[in-house]
């Protein structure tokens, strides 16, 4: 039963990560989420971990494997933003975003692939962003990390593709979450004008694509970037 597999969602305590955890849970998967604070949906195993801290990941992953078995599906979703224009961006504002959104993905990925190799099965789904390829003023740090995930997924595909392990990027556009709720009405209206669908996505619309990529139906898709952006990026 593919739905009896074990899934780890990083940053599963809110927004898109929470919706992804819910979607896998509703489909019968065993689901664990990492969170620095708060917890995942009811029915998931929440483990405390910070993707910038390797030791916290070691103990979190050990806990997941002890309770739910080897991790077969990884959804790397944990991410932060520190938006500001390039000329004002400090080294720290750039480096801390890279440390969470890129180095953090590597730290988790390296730790879970060992089990995937042993099982001769794995699904790696990296949560990117439309701005990774479209760019975004004020997000030099964030967009750089999201763009880098594409190279990471494609390199993983070349290394591990022969072992029944796929690696893909899901690139959401604007989603109705806490993060977008903070935008002004004026800004939201401006963004919606640029989106051919004319609206933001519900987090569930991203979650369903992620769940599908983890399924046997998507076993021959790897190294791909799947946009879930209402046409905003048009494949850029």
What does this 3D model show about the protein?
- The chain has eight helices and seven strands.
- By secondary structure, it is α/β, with parallel strands linked by helices.
- Helix 3 (91-119) links the parallel strand 4 (73-76) and strand 5.
- The radius of gyration is 17 Å and the shape is globular.
- The N and C termini lie far apart (36 Å).
Gyration radius, to the nearest Å? 17 Å
Helix coverage percent of residues? 40-55%
Can you tell me the overall shape? globular
Structural class: alpha/beta
Please report the distance between the alpha carbons of the first and last residues.
36 Å
Mean pLDDT: 95
What string, H for helix and E for strand, traces the elements in order?
EHEEHEHEHHEHHHE
* Major β-sheet strand ordering: 3-2-1-4-5-6-7
Give a short account of the largest sheet.
7 strands, parallel
Number of strands: 7
**Structure annotation, total helices:** 8
Beta fraction: 15-25%
Low-confidence segments: none
Name a few traits of the molecule.
7-stranded parallel beta sheet; 236 residues; alpha/beta; single chain; 45% helix
Question: What is the element layout, followed by pairings?
Answer:
Layout: E1 6-10, H1 15-26, E2 30-35, E3 45-48, H2 54-68, E4 73-76, H3 91-119, E5 122-127, H4 131-134, H5 140-160, E6 165-172, H6 178-181, H7 185-194, H8 203-214, E7 225-228
Parallel strand pairs: 1-2, 1-4, 2-3, 4-5, 5-6, 6-7
